[in-house]
Structures are given as C-alpha cells and as structure tokens.
Amino acid sequence: MNQPRVASGAMIPYLKLAKDSGIDPQAPLSELGLTLEAINQKQTRIPMSVCSSLIGRLVELSRDSSFGLQSARYIEIGSYDINGYISVNCSCPLEAVELTTKYYGIISDQRVLYVSENQTHIISQWLLPDPLNTVNRNIADHLLASYVRFARSILGLQDGIAYASFRHPAPTDPQLMQLYEESFDCPLHFDQQHYSVAFDRQMARDMRIPQADTMLRDILVAHAESRLRDIRTTPPFTYEVKEQIRKMLEETVPSRECVAEKLHMGSRTLQRHLLSEGSSYKSAFNEVRHELALHYIKNKTLSLDDIAEKLGFSETRSFHRSFKQWTGETIGAYRAQLTQ
C-alpha cells in the first residue's frame, strides 16, 4: 500500500527558518535522499514519513523546541499551493475557510482539516495523528500558527480570531508561553480534545476580502478540482511524472530521458516504476496532453494552431486526430457544447 504524501512546498517555511538559524538545509535533506531543487519544484509530493523525519531533524539541529511555531513566520500565499490563491480571491473569510478545507487534499493525502459552525464561531479543526511527541507537537504548532498568520496578514482578518486550542499541555517555560501569546494574539486553550482555530462567525461571514476576484476564484477552483481528481486517482510515481511533463511542456516537448533526468534517475528506471503502477511514459504523456487540451480549448483567445503547438504536436492535423481519439468527438463539436 502506498504511504500518504504531502506537497513538498509545506516544507519550505521550515527550511527557510533553518537557513536563517545558521543550519545548512541541504545536509538534513541529503540524509533523507532529498534535494532543495526537488523541494522547490511546484506540485512535487513526498512521503509524509519523510516530512516528519525532516522536521524532527531540523528541530534536533536547531535545539529549539519552538521551531514549528517560529517557522510560521515564513508562510506565504504559495505555501498552501493553489489553496492560498483561491483563498485570497474568495468573497469573505468564511468562503476561504470552507474552500481551503475542501481542497486540503492538494496539500496532503491525509485529510486532517475540517470546518464546523455554531452560533458564534466558525471552527477549523485538525485531527492529527498520535503520539503527542516533539515532532507532532511542532507540526501542530506550525499548522495553527501559520493558519492564523495567513488569516491576519494575507486575508486581512485582523480582529476575527476568537481562540486557538491545543491538545498538548501549556508550556512551563515563561519565554515559550510568551512566544505562543505573541504568535496567536488571542485566547489560548491547552490540554483540549482537538487542535483548532475559531473565528468570529459574524465577521467571517460579513467581512469582504479586498483583493478578491471571484471570476479568478472560479477558474482556480476548477483547476483545483482537476488536480484533486488526478491526485486521488493516479499512483504517486505516475503523478510525479505527469507533473514534471506539465512543467516541461511550457517550454519544450519532454522526452522520457529528459523527464528521467529531472527526477534524478535513468530512463529505464523511470519506465520500470511507471509499469509497476500500471502506466507507461507514453500513456502518462498523452494523459497530460488530453487534460491540457480540454483546459486550453475553453480559452477562445487561443487558436487551434496555438493549442497544438503548446501541446507539442508537429501539426494541427495530428492534434485533431488525437482529440477525436481522447474524447470521441471533434474539437468543433466539443467547443460548440461549451458555447451552449
């Protein structure tokens, strides 16, 4: 059974803190067979167990029990993948919270974030695994603190944080307790049943997000739906290969050898891994072209010649033939249905 994976971008705040703390991030990455280049590649997913080991190693090297809490300072819109961009284009914080929860699978294979509502609060709740060890506590602290920071600094929800609750006990160190208070700036409850952040219900419903573009939000949501389907239905290595093909298609038609080189392996090894998941390079490549074709055709400003070139077809006739094989209908008929 394939183990759960998490978006590599989730590790970037930890690695930025490590670098600013005088720790060479490449050293702990190398211990786990990773590179900074691989971590920084968009939409790369790595095993959750490897992420936990990396965080544990960084906490150990820093000798800082508040490492997870402090890494929240490095959160950005892109830290949450497409979810962050969806959030800033929502009409209100409540919608941002609901959509972030709905598409959490883009960040992690394990759904741990849930949202509920009562008469006074909107509550985001994390169901994190046991045990309550140092690594899991640092992960929990980072998740909650970065969530609050994003809500305040990026969504503009300055006064709407009602409280934060933690499963672990309150720290006995006064300096660490002060850091919690500064990081959250709201009532804190320890030794609770769940990790959660509560927002004032009325404010979350009524406040308008100033930079929101609901048309862009809808485009991003459609893309998130497609990404989520792909993540849930595609085995991990095949998914990784398809994501690499997508990136490289922006500049050139990637060969199997070029993709294998990007993934730091031989061409035959890549094909062998794909075959073990019931796929092949040819089928993965054509699946990516099929998905992108359906996306590009919705854009009426792109000519069919432009789309064929973007998808790596040497001539538009070949694109027409492939589209008919993929969908069972002509491009003209498909575009007519979209218009209707």
Plain-language structure description:
- There is one protein chain.
- With 340 residues, the protein is of the alpha+beta class.
- 56% of the residues lie in helices and 9% in strands.
- Helix 6 (82-88) packs antiparallel against helix 11 (214-233).
- It is globular.
Q: Which helices and strands, and how do they pair?
A:
Blueprint: E1 5-7, H1 12-20, H2 26-31, H3 36-40, E2 45-47, H4 48-62, H5 67-71, H6 82-88, H7 93-102, E3 113-117, E4 121-126, H8 134-153, E5 161-165, H9 174-184, E6 188-189, E7 195-200, H10 201-206, H11 214-233, H12 236-249, H13 256-262, H14 267-276, H15 281-297, H16 304-310, H17 316-327, H18 331-339
Parallel strand pairs: 5-6
Antiparallel strand pairs: 1-2, 3-4, 4-7, 5-7
Strand order of the largest sheet: 3-4-7-5-6
Task: Give the total of domains.
Answer: 2
Structural class: alpha+beta
The 3D shape can be described as globular
Beta-strand content bin:
5-15%
Global Rg: 22 Å
Poorly predicted regions: none
Compute the separation of the termini in Å: 44 Å
Order of helices and strands: EHHHEHHHHEEHEHEEHHHHHHHHH
Residues in helix, %: 55-70%
CATH level-two architecture of the largest domain: Alpha-Beta Complex
CATH class of the largest domain: Alpha Beta
Instruction: Give the tally of β-strands.
Output: 7
Chain-averaged pLDDT? 91
Please supply descriptive tags for the structure shown above.
single chain; about 350 residues; alpha+beta; H-NOX domain; Arc Repressor Mutant, subunit A; five-stranded mixed β-sheet; two-stranded antiparallel ribbon; about 55% helix; globular
